[in-house]
Write the structure tokens for this entry.
Amino acid sequence: MNLQGKEIVLGVTGSIAAYKAVELLRELVKAGASVKVVMTESARRFVAPLTFATLSRQEVMTDLFTLDYDAKIRHIAATEGADLLLVAPATANVIGRFARGLADDLLTNLFLASTRPVLLAPAMDADMYRHPAVQENLERLRTWGVRIVGPAEGELASGMWGPGRLAEIQEILKAVTEILQPTNDLAGEVVIVTAGPTHEPIDPVRYLTNRSSGKMGYAIAQVAADRGAQTILVSGPTALTAPRGVEVIQVETALEMRAAMLDHLPKATVVIKAAAVSDYRLSRPSTSKVKKSEKPQTLQLVPNPDILKEIGAQKGARIVVGFAAETGDLLRQAGRKLKEKNLDLIVVNDIGAEGAGFSHDTNVVSILDLDGGVEQLPLLPKRQVARRILDRVVRLRQERGSGG
Ligand code: PMT
């Protein structure tokens, strides 16, 4: 990682994870970045400013009401020439104040006054992180273009297990590099990604579905767009915010997903199918609400088309990547789907493993290829899994030459 010549403002807020910001600062400085540290009042209760000042070789900024040496107003001067405002750890409190536009200390003023990219690494207790207020604030910040890295799942300072740990330092550094040195290795590709579940109506109020949140597919779409691909995301119903720079097509049923895919397929050079498509739909969904008083009925199901298999059959020069969600005999099942659906790669998640598969922010996957290769990845944030899958796509493209 080379951050030579880059200027970063590192905001440190009052979390027990503040001590990890010391290591983060060391790594940023080692990579050549010039780092100005801004500490909130509560951060200074966890770590002394002197530690950051010594490692950054710069004065640590804490006070809103001080003029800089050249008499510039501090909250404007601090980020003026900066390439990035990075806040790590970012507490629920500072996330809330950013999201509401409050400006009652130096860091919140910097956030409002800055026009530079912003990256937040949240850290808090799991229940706080799950609270709708925090989730809503993070979503609001995302829609403004603020990038979020983490949090990771694991043991927390409270002794609880869950999401809320500051993302690993290497993960934060990767996110910084992605912003400051975007890779363009997917430029020229048109990538269609699918994500989320499908809803197969029973009547106007009920439907058949599954536990997919869309997180895996959205992460792939975001990373593909960040790496220069024209990216189209065909999404089943999810609660997620559209990734930046991605064309999103919202669908509900498997048939709608199929239609959207086939519509865009002619221009696609890469297809990645992370959606959990319902294998069945009702043969005749009711057009009016089925009354409780009506006697219990048997749902008559018919199979949905296998969209991926259909795309595999007309693959041409495209790179087609499927997913498989399995609980037992993972590799054999996935290997069978790889061949049956004429794919180039299949990503199999062990949905029985801790932190893997549906709804989690992390996943545990293996990537199988046509040469019988199996790349087993450890438990990783879905964004990092997305990167590893796209690394394989880039490698395949380099081996094969340009797409169709
Ligand atoms: O959304 P998240 O909460 O982040 O969870 C991610 C995930 C677990 C949903 C994702 O990682 C995943 O595994 N997606 C595929 C799940 C699945 O439906 O697997 P499958 O083995 O049933 O299907 C195999 C492949 O065929 C998949 O690429 C699927 O999109 C595709 N398929 C399946 C059925 C169908 N009718 N049409 C299809 O195209």
